[in-house]
Amino acid sequence: MEIIIQKNSQQAADVGARIIRGLIAAKPDAVIGLATGSTPVSMYQRLIEMDLDWSQVTTFNLDEYIGLPKEHPQTYHSFMWENLFNHINIDPAKVHIPDGNAEDIPAHCSAYEKAIADAGGIDLQVLGIGSDGHIGFNEPTSSLASRTRIKTLTERTVQDNARFFSSAEEVPRHVITMGIGTIMEARTNLLLAFGDNKADAVAGMVEGPITANNPATVLQMHPSVKVCLDEAAAMKLERADYYRWVYEGKPEWQRDR
Ligand code: PGA
After folding, report:
1. CA 37 to centroid of ligand 1, rounded, Å
2. pTM as predicted
């Protein structure tokens, strides 16, 4: 894992945006996996400001709530259009977000996996991390080999996400999420984490033993993971000074790769 610790979340988001810019420059028809939540918003803002050519890019989102009407402001469909897609020249036909209202959800999940494979696989997957270590909505004890499927959220995640709704009761309990096995097949994973409520999950992910109790720890088995952190999210890392030393010593030509 490459651990990139920046002074604040905006600088960490800028690093993430530059990595995506580099990918699109090198591969204009890249397949990019996207995430929702508070964390990626500032990176999406930077990407919008960069005015990149997204016309050939294909995207696959990680997850979606089950049962909210598609146009509900808290669906991840609404989130993505509001925070990114409405502001870039992406082809709507190349946008994929799980459909939380699909009639046959297991069949929809299989079709989602097939669509990813048909697109040639994901070049770069953007990830956040839950305070409980979830990636996508793969909650603790998820199979580390799981594929896109239905999951039930933990009470902690429902509470974490209640801030987007008028009450915790309104947060859907069920979601569709790419599996951990799906995420592990992305060629690169780009994980962003900001704030002290992520510090334990991040420390476990980077320096703890691999365990389904902190699903993000599985990324230790992935050959290409970049982790962009602010100081608060990095505060429990024992080897933080080493990660800083490595990043500071990176040759300029290697920086945004
Ligand atoms: P957040 O969510 O960015 O809103 O903190 C991250 C996640 O749950 O993966």
Report:
1. 5
2. 0.97
